[in-house]
Amino acid sequence: MNMQQIMAQAQRMQKDIMAKKDQIDKMSFEGKSDWVVINFKGNRSVDSVEIVNDAAFDKENKDILSDMIMLAIKDGLAKIDKETEDKLGSYGNMGGLL
User: Fold this and answer.
1) How many domains are there within the chain?
2) In CATH, what number is assigned to the domain containing residue 8?
3) Which of 35, 71, 78, 95 is deepest in the core (most CB within 10 A)?
4) How far apart are CA 67 and CA 45, in angstroms?
């Protein structure tokens, strides 16, 4: 295999990776536990947090707890993203792997 063929193959792989990443980014995912349902996008953003065990909380406390859970999730994901960027940022142009 010559260098042109290798480069062409790498470009095809990069396009394929980008297309699949775009598909995943547009998807929705739901995380569940006995008390909480969290909706995510494929790009790891949090769409919503819902407390499903209404009996344990009044309306105001339920809303506050939902907000606090969402903030904690976003904070944790942001830390993961920062660490990933710090460690792998130099590879960011390799097919959108980040």
Assistant:
1) 1
2) 3.30.1310
3) 95
4) 14
Instruction: Please give the model's pTM, rounded to 2 decimal places.
Output: 0.64
Sheet holding 36-41, edge to edge: 28-32, 36-41, 46-51
54 and 62 in contact (C-beta within 8 Å)?
yes
Asked if the structure places residue 68 within a domain, the reply is: yes
What are the pLDDT tens digits along the chain (98 aa)? 799 999 999 999 888 888 888 888 888 899 888 888 899 888 888 888 888 877 767 878 888 888 888 888 888 888 888 887 887 776 665 555 54
| Owning domain of residue 65 | 3-91
Residue type, 92: G
Quote the strand ranges of the chain, DSSP E.
Answer: 28-32, 36-41, 46-51
Q: Specify if 86 maps to a domain.
A: yes
